[in-house]
Amino acid sequence: MNEEQKKAGNTRIREKEYYELLSRELEKRAGENVDISIRDVQKNNGVYRKACTVRFNDAQIAPTVYLEPYYDHYLHGEAVAESADNILRYCRCQTPEITFPENFFKEYRTVRGRLGIKLIGKKRNEAFLKDVPHIDLDDLAGIFFYLLENPAFGNGIIVIRNQDIERWGMTLEQLYADALENCSQMLPPVFRSLSDVLDVLQPEGEGELYLLTNDTALYGAAVILYPGLLREVADYLGSDFFVLPSSVHEVILLPDNGEEAEGLLQIVTEINHTQVEEEEILIDAVYKYTSGDEFIHREA
Questions:
Q1: Cα–Cα dist 145/159, whole Å
Q2: Strand partners, 213
Q3: Is the N end or the C end of the chain the one with fewer CB atoms within 10 Å?
Q4: CA distances from residue 2 to 8, 14, 26, 71 in whole angstroms, order as listed
Protein backbone atom coordinates (compact mmCIF):
# COMPACT_ATOMS: atom_id res chain seq x y z
CA MET A 1 0.00 0.00 0.00
CA ASN A 2 1.54 3.33 -1.08
CA GLU A 3 1.37 6.69 0.70
CA GLU A 4 -1.65 7.84 -1.31
CA GLN A 5 -3.63 4.69 -0.55
CA LYS A 6 -2.83 4.88 3.15
CA LYS A 7 -4.04 8.47 3.37
CA ALA A 8 -7.15 7.74 1.34
CA GLY A 9 -7.92 4.75 3.54
CA ASN A 10 -7.96 6.86 6.69
CA THR A 11 -9.26 10.28 5.70
CA ARG A 12 -9.37 12.54 2.72
CA ILE A 13 -6.36 14.85 2.57
CA ARG A 14 -6.77 18.61 2.54
CA GLU A 15 -6.71 20.58 -0.69
CA LYS A 16 -3.18 21.95 -0.21
CA GLU A 17 -1.81 18.47 0.47
CA TYR A 18 -3.68 17.13 -2.54
CA TYR A 19 -1.96 19.60 -4.89
CA GLU A 20 1.43 18.67 -3.47
CA LEU A 21 0.72 14.99 -4.00
CA LEU A 22 -0.67 15.63 -7.47
CA SER A 23 2.47 17.56 -8.41
CA ARG A 24 4.64 14.62 -7.44
CA GLU A 25 2.46 12.22 -9.42
CA LEU A 26 2.62 14.47 -12.48
CA GLU A 27 6.40 14.71 -12.30
CA LYS A 28 6.70 10.96 -11.91
CA ARG A 29 4.50 10.20 -14.92
CA ALA A 30 5.47 13.00 -17.29
CA GLY A 31 8.85 11.69 -18.40
CA GLU A 32 11.76 13.74 -19.72
CA ASN A 33 11.59 17.16 -21.40
CA VAL A 34 8.33 18.06 -19.70
CA ASP A 35 8.06 21.18 -17.56
CA ILE A 36 5.26 21.17 -14.98
CA SER A 37 4.29 24.10 -12.79
CA ILE A 38 1.43 24.51 -10.33
CA ARG A 39 0.62 28.03 -9.21
CA ASP A 40 -2.14 30.37 -8.09
CA VAL A 41 -3.56 32.40 -10.98
CA GLN A 42 -5.37 35.68 -10.38
CA LYS A 43 -8.65 35.89 -12.26
CA ASN A 44 -11.32 38.56 -12.54
CA ASN A 45 -12.77 40.09 -9.34
CA GLY A 46 -9.83 39.04 -7.17
CA VAL A 47 -10.55 35.33 -7.63
CA TYR A 48 -7.51 33.05 -7.41
CA ARG A 49 -7.51 29.58 -8.94
CA LYS A 50 -5.00 26.75 -8.69
CA ALA A 51 -3.59 26.12 -12.15
CA CYS A 52 -1.27 23.52 -13.63
CA THR A 53 0.75 24.26 -16.78
CA VAL A 54 2.36 21.39 -18.69
CA ARG A 55 4.93 22.21 -21.38
CA PHE A 56 6.11 19.35 -23.62
CA ASN A 57 9.49 19.47 -25.36
CA ASP A 58 9.87 23.26 -25.17
CA ALA A 59 6.56 23.84 -27.00
CA GLN A 60 5.79 27.54 -27.44
CA ILE A 61 2.27 27.13 -26.03
CA ALA A 62 1.62 25.20 -22.83
CA PRO A 63 -1.97 24.25 -21.91
CA THR A 64 -3.23 25.32 -18.49
CA VAL A 65 -5.57 23.13 -16.45
CA TYR A 66 -7.46 24.42 -13.42
CA LEU A 67 -7.21 21.91 -10.61
CA GLU A 68 -10.19 22.54 -8.31
CA PRO A 69 -12.39 20.08 -10.26
CA TYR A 70 -9.75 17.38 -9.86
CA TYR A 71 -9.75 17.81 -6.09
CA ASP A 72 -13.51 17.40 -6.22
CA HIS A 73 -13.01 14.20 -8.25
CA TYR A 74 -10.61 13.01 -5.57
CA LEU A 75 -13.18 13.66 -2.85
CA HIS A 76 -15.57 11.50 -4.86
CA GLY A 77 -13.12 8.63 -5.11
CA GLU A 78 -10.79 9.29 -8.04
CA ALA A 79 -7.18 8.32 -7.29
CA VAL A 80 -4.55 11.06 -7.50
CA ALA A 81 -2.57 8.95 -9.96
CA GLU A 82 -5.60 8.68 -12.23
CA SER A 83 -6.07 12.45 -12.14
CA ALA A 84 -2.41 12.95 -13.05
CA ASP A 85 -2.76 10.63 -16.04
CA ASN A 86 -5.91 12.44 -17.16
CA ILE A 87 -4.23 15.85 -16.92
CA LEU A 88 -1.18 14.74 -18.91
CA ARG A 89 -3.36 13.08 -21.55
CA TYR A 90 -5.47 16.21 -21.90
CA CYS A 91 -2.44 18.51 -22.15
CA ARG A 92 -0.79 16.35 -24.81
CA CYS A 93 -3.93 16.57 -26.92
CA GLN A 94 -4.29 20.31 -26.34
CA THR A 95 -0.70 21.32 -27.14
CA PRO A 96 -0.91 22.91 -30.60
CA GLU A 97 1.87 22.79 -33.16
CA ILE A 98 2.33 26.54 -33.42
CA THR A 99 5.58 28.35 -34.12
CA PHE A 100 5.83 32.04 -33.29
CA PRO A 101 8.57 34.32 -34.65
CA GLU A 102 11.50 34.97 -32.34
CA ASN A 103 10.40 38.56 -31.80
CA PHE A 104 6.83 37.55 -30.88
CA PHE A 105 5.49 39.85 -28.15
CA LYS A 106 8.74 41.76 -28.17
CA GLU A 107 7.68 43.98 -31.06
CA TYR A 108 4.26 45.59 -31.35
CA ARG A 109 3.81 44.61 -34.97
CA THR A 110 3.73 40.92 -34.01
CA VAL A 111 0.66 41.37 -31.80
CA ARG A 112 -1.12 44.45 -33.16
CA GLY A 113 -3.44 42.56 -35.50
CA ARG A 114 -4.97 40.36 -32.79
CA LEU A 115 -5.35 42.76 -29.89
CA GLY A 116 -8.73 42.64 -28.15
CA ILE A 117 -10.43 44.32 -25.21
CA LYS A 118 -12.28 43.01 -22.18
CA LEU A 119 -14.52 44.87 -19.71
CA ILE A 120 -14.13 44.36 -15.95
CA GLY A 121 -15.38 46.15 -12.84
CA LYS A 122 -12.89 48.59 -11.31
CA LYS A 123 -13.72 48.29 -7.62
CA ARG A 124 -13.14 44.53 -7.33
CA ASN A 125 -10.03 44.62 -9.52
CA GLU A 126 -8.06 47.55 -8.10
CA ALA A 127 -4.91 45.52 -7.40
CA PHE A 128 -4.98 43.80 -10.78
CA LEU A 129 -5.44 47.08 -12.66
CA LYS A 130 -2.19 48.44 -11.23
CA ASP A 131 -0.28 45.91 -13.36
CA VAL A 132 -2.11 46.28 -16.67
CA PRO A 133 -2.75 49.14 -19.11
CA HIS A 134 -6.46 49.96 -19.12
CA ILE A 135 -9.07 52.40 -20.27
CA ASP A 136 -10.93 54.15 -17.45
CA LEU A 137 -14.71 54.02 -17.98
CA ASP A 138 -16.04 55.37 -14.67
CA ASP A 139 -16.73 52.24 -12.61
CA LEU A 140 -15.68 49.94 -15.46
CA ALA A 141 -12.29 49.40 -17.06
CA GLY A 142 -11.22 48.05 -20.41
CA ILE A 143 -8.14 45.81 -20.37
CA PHE A 144 -6.30 44.42 -23.38
CA PHE A 145 -5.40 40.95 -24.55
CA TYR A 146 -3.83 39.08 -27.46
CA LEU A 147 -6.27 36.57 -28.95
CA LEU A 148 -4.86 33.14 -29.70
CA GLU A 149 -6.97 31.12 -32.11
CA ASN A 150 -6.23 27.53 -33.06
CA PRO A 151 -8.43 24.56 -34.04
CA ALA A 152 -6.61 22.41 -31.47
CA PHE A 153 -7.81 24.35 -28.42
CA GLY A 154 -10.18 27.09 -29.61
CA ASN A 155 -9.61 30.59 -28.26
CA GLY A 156 -7.12 31.59 -25.62
CA ILE A 157 -5.77 34.94 -24.49
CA ILE A 158 -2.56 36.57 -23.28
CA VAL A 159 -3.26 39.61 -21.09
CA ILE A 160 -1.26 42.72 -21.99
CA ARG A 161 0.84 43.97 -19.07
CA ASN A 162 2.40 47.34 -18.29
CA GLN A 163 5.85 46.07 -19.20
CA ASP A 164 4.56 45.03 -22.63
CA ILE A 165 3.24 48.47 -23.59
CA GLU A 166 6.41 50.08 -22.21
CA ARG A 167 8.59 47.74 -24.27
CA TRP A 168 6.59 48.49 -27.41
CA GLY A 169 6.68 52.24 -26.82
CA MET A 170 2.95 52.41 -27.49
CA THR A 171 0.45 54.87 -26.07
CA LEU A 172 -2.71 53.73 -24.33
CA GLU A 173 -4.76 55.60 -26.93
CA GLN A 174 -3.13 53.70 -29.82
CA LEU A 175 -3.63 50.39 -28.04
CA TYR A 176 -7.31 51.18 -27.54
CA ALA A 177 -7.84 52.26 -31.14
CA ASP A 178 -6.15 49.13 -32.54
CA ALA A 179 -8.05 46.80 -30.18
CA LEU A 180 -11.42 48.28 -31.17
CA GLU A 181 -10.58 48.07 -34.86
CA ASN A 182 -9.57 44.43 -34.50
CA CYS A 183 -12.58 43.43 -32.41
CA SER A 184 -15.10 44.64 -34.95
CA GLN A 185 -13.59 42.11 -37.38
CA MET A 186 -12.38 39.14 -35.33
CA LEU A 187 -15.12 39.37 -32.65
CA PRO A 188 -18.09 40.92 -34.49
CA PRO A 189 -21.17 41.89 -32.44
CA VAL A 190 -24.25 39.71 -32.08
CA PHE A 191 -27.60 41.29 -31.22
CA ARG A 192 -30.58 38.99 -30.75
CA SER A 193 -33.84 38.72 -28.88
CA LEU A 194 -33.22 36.84 -25.64
CA SER A 195 -36.27 34.65 -26.32
CA ASP A 196 -34.60 33.47 -29.54
CA VAL A 197 -31.37 32.66 -27.74
CA LEU A 198 -32.98 30.81 -24.82
CA ASP A 199 -35.95 29.48 -26.78
CA VAL A 200 -38.36 30.59 -24.09
CA LEU A 201 -41.31 32.97 -23.97
CA GLN A 202 -40.73 36.21 -22.10
CA PRO A 203 -43.27 37.32 -19.48
CA GLU A 204 -46.02 39.61 -20.76
CA GLY A 205 -45.81 43.25 -19.79
CA GLU A 206 -42.06 43.27 -19.03
CA GLY A 207 -40.87 44.35 -22.47
CA GLU A 208 -38.68 42.30 -24.76
CA LEU A 209 -35.13 41.62 -23.63
CA TYR A 210 -32.17 41.49 -26.02
CA LEU A 211 -28.75 39.84 -25.82
CA LEU A 212 -25.68 41.79 -26.93
CA THR A 213 -22.36 39.92 -27.20
CA ASN A 214 -19.86 38.87 -29.89
CA ASP A 215 -19.95 35.84 -32.17
CA THR A 216 -17.75 33.74 -29.87
CA ALA A 217 -19.35 34.92 -26.59
CA LEU A 218 -15.78 35.49 -25.35
CA TYR A 219 -15.68 38.71 -23.28
CA GLY A 220 -18.62 39.90 -25.34
CA ALA A 221 -19.70 42.63 -22.90
CA ALA A 222 -16.99 44.77 -24.51
CA VAL A 223 -19.06 45.17 -27.67
CA ILE A 224 -20.72 48.16 -26.00
CA LEU A 225 -17.42 49.96 -26.73
CA TYR A 226 -17.64 49.38 -30.49
CA PRO A 227 -17.96 52.78 -32.19
CA GLY A 228 -21.54 53.60 -33.18
CA LEU A 229 -23.00 50.26 -32.08
CA LEU A 230 -25.15 51.58 -29.22
CA ARG A 231 -26.58 54.25 -31.49
CA GLU A 232 -27.48 51.59 -34.08
CA VAL A 233 -29.23 49.53 -31.40
CA ALA A 234 -31.21 52.56 -30.22
CA ASP A 235 -32.28 53.27 -33.81
CA TYR A 236 -33.41 49.65 -34.21
CA LEU A 237 -35.34 49.63 -30.93
CA GLY A 238 -36.76 53.09 -31.51
CA SER A 239 -36.08 54.02 -27.88
CA ASP A 240 -33.49 54.49 -25.18
CA PHE A 241 -32.60 51.31 -23.33
CA PHE A 242 -31.20 49.91 -20.11
CA VAL A 243 -27.98 47.88 -20.12
CA LEU A 244 -27.92 45.02 -17.60
CA PRO A 245 -24.41 43.55 -17.14
CA SER A 246 -25.12 39.82 -17.02
CA SER A 247 -21.44 38.77 -17.15
CA VAL A 248 -18.11 39.72 -18.73
CA HIS A 249 -19.30 37.77 -21.77
CA GLU A 250 -22.56 39.56 -22.57
CA VAL A 251 -25.04 42.24 -21.56
CA ILE A 252 -28.83 42.24 -21.61
CA LEU A 253 -30.69 45.20 -23.11
CA LEU A 254 -34.17 46.32 -22.06
CA PRO A 255 -36.00 49.09 -23.96
CA ASP A 256 -36.93 51.93 -21.61
CA ASN A 257 -40.64 51.57 -20.95
CA GLY A 258 -40.61 53.36 -17.62
CA GLU A 259 -39.05 50.63 -15.47
CA GLU A 260 -37.43 51.66 -12.18
CA ALA A 261 -33.64 51.27 -12.25
CA GLU A 262 -33.56 50.21 -8.58
CA GLY A 263 -35.80 47.24 -9.31
CA LEU A 264 -33.59 46.23 -12.22
CA LEU A 265 -30.52 46.48 -9.98
CA GLN A 266 -32.04 43.96 -7.58
CA ILE A 267 -32.50 41.54 -10.48
CA VAL A 268 -28.95 42.03 -11.78
CA THR A 269 -27.43 41.58 -8.31
CA GLU A 270 -29.42 38.45 -7.58
CA ILE A 271 -28.52 36.84 -10.90
CA ASN A 272 -24.84 37.77 -10.55
CA HIS A 273 -24.55 36.09 -7.17
CA THR A 274 -26.70 33.02 -7.78
CA GLN A 275 -26.22 32.10 -11.44
CA VAL A 276 -22.86 33.54 -12.54
CA GLU A 277 -19.39 32.27 -11.60
CA GLU A 278 -17.68 34.87 -9.41
CA GLU A 279 -14.80 35.41 -11.83
CA GLU A 280 -17.27 36.07 -14.67
CA ILE A 281 -19.31 38.76 -12.87
CA LEU A 282 -18.93 42.14 -14.55
CA ILE A 283 -20.52 44.49 -12.02
CA ASP A 284 -23.62 44.93 -9.87
CA ALA A 285 -25.04 47.96 -11.67
CA VAL A 286 -27.66 49.14 -14.13
CA TYR A 287 -26.79 51.46 -17.01
CA LYS A 288 -28.81 53.36 -19.55
CA TYR A 289 -28.12 54.46 -23.08
CA THR A 290 -29.81 57.69 -24.14
CA SER A 291 -30.16 58.32 -27.87
CA GLY A 292 -27.50 60.68 -29.15
CA ASP A 293 -24.99 59.90 -26.39
CA GLU A 294 -21.61 58.35 -27.07
CA PHE A 295 -21.74 55.89 -24.18
CA ILE A 296 -23.88 54.50 -21.38
CA HIS A 297 -24.35 56.17 -18.00
CA ARG A 298 -25.05 54.50 -14.66
CA GLU A 299 -28.62 54.60 -13.39
CA ALA A 300 -28.31 52.41 -10.27
A1: 4
A2: 190
A3: N
A4: 10, 18, 16, 19
The one-letter code for the residue type at 157 is I
Whole-model pTM above 0.70?
Answer: yes
Nearest-angstrom CA–CA distance, 125 and 123: 6
CA 250 from chain centre, in angstroms, equals 11
- pLDDT tens-digit series, residues 73-118: 999 999 999 999 999 999 998 887 777 777 888 999 999 999 999 9
Q: Which strand (E) or helix (H) includes residue 148?
A: strand 140-150
How crowded is residue 130: how many other Cβ atoms within 10 Å of its Cβ? 9
Query: How far apart (Å, rounded) are the C-alpha atoms in residues 38 and 31?
Result: 17
- How many other CB atoms sit within 10 Å of the CB of residue 197? 14
Helix (H) or strand (E) holding 115: strand 115-121
**Secondary structure of residue 284 in the 3-state scheme:** coil
